[in-house]
Amino acid sequence: MEISILGSGSWSTAIAYLLSENHDVLLYARNPEDAKYINDNHKNKKYLKDFDLPTNIKATSNIKDLFKNRFIINGIPTQSIRSVIKQFKPYFSEDNIFVNLSKGLELETHNRISQIVKQELGEDTHYAILSGPSHAEEVIRKMPTAVVSACEDINLAKEIQLIFTNDWFRVYSSTDVIGVELGGAIKNTLAFGIGMLDGLGYGDNTKAAVITRGINEMNRLLIEFDANPNTLNGLAGVGDLIVTSTSLNSRNYRTGLLIGQGLSMQDAISEINMVVEGIPTTKALNQLAKNHKLDLPITSEIYKILYENKNPNDSVASLMGRSLKSEF
Fold this sequence. Notes:
Elements: E1 2-6, H1 10-19, E2 24-28, H2 32-41, E3 57-60, E4 71-74, H3 78-88, E5 97-100, H4 113-121, E6 126-131, H5 136-139, E7 145-150, H6 154-164, E8 169-174, H7 177-200, H8 204-224, H9 229-232, H10 235-245, H11 251-260, H12 265-272, H13 278-291, H14 297-307, H15 312-320
Parallel strand pairs: 1-2, 1-4, 2-3, 4-5, 5-6, 7-8
Antiparallel strand pairs: 6-7
């Protein structure tokens, strides 16, 4: 079977490498020169460039080519997904299955990615998400990794589970699309905040407090949108939060770290030189919380730091000075 992948960034490249063990892969690179380089040199010169790609990974810059295959794996960043779907919509058929790898909420609408996909392609579109604690840099090195495949159709979730699973990549199945998507969104915001704490020089006590109370905010969000509370304790919840908030491989953590060390938001993004999903997601999440009258104090303070130029130390003081209450 040949599988199509939308995008040629680091995560798309790592997933292509993973899938190539058992399947042929067609990778979409927007720039024709990038596609030619991959085909000629079996490397991605922009991302994970030190790794050789198997010869059964081919690249194309013609988006139409992808839709001859049943599975369309999306690695396009969240804020670009709607515009890219509009480009390929004429070629997408009812036989195609959209498997999403990206995390976050759309900035303008506050929509989850499944909502964007179904608004643009139709409510009957086959949609699934693959999410969990998984750095591209470790997956391509074949380090043992576990993630979750979520789809409202459990049989399709299990089919995707089988397609992706191998000796070093283990996939669990779920039907809780909403919980997996929301967990993957808010953990980026929290990881960003934890990176800032490290940049500011706070210690382990502070970090543990923010992680724990951040999990509480994740729980409130999932409950509000009728997700399965068990998802919070799984790979797309606590699992993804752990890996994203404790590693320099995390773009969100590193960006927060740089801002905590004194860089401006724009300078930090330039230093990372890749899409940092947590920044627009924080804005969308903050507005979503307001619309639903949800109390997410950590998320709110991270938003104020990013978008209202609040001093991070003042945000710590605001959180510590909140009125006392029972933990649960």
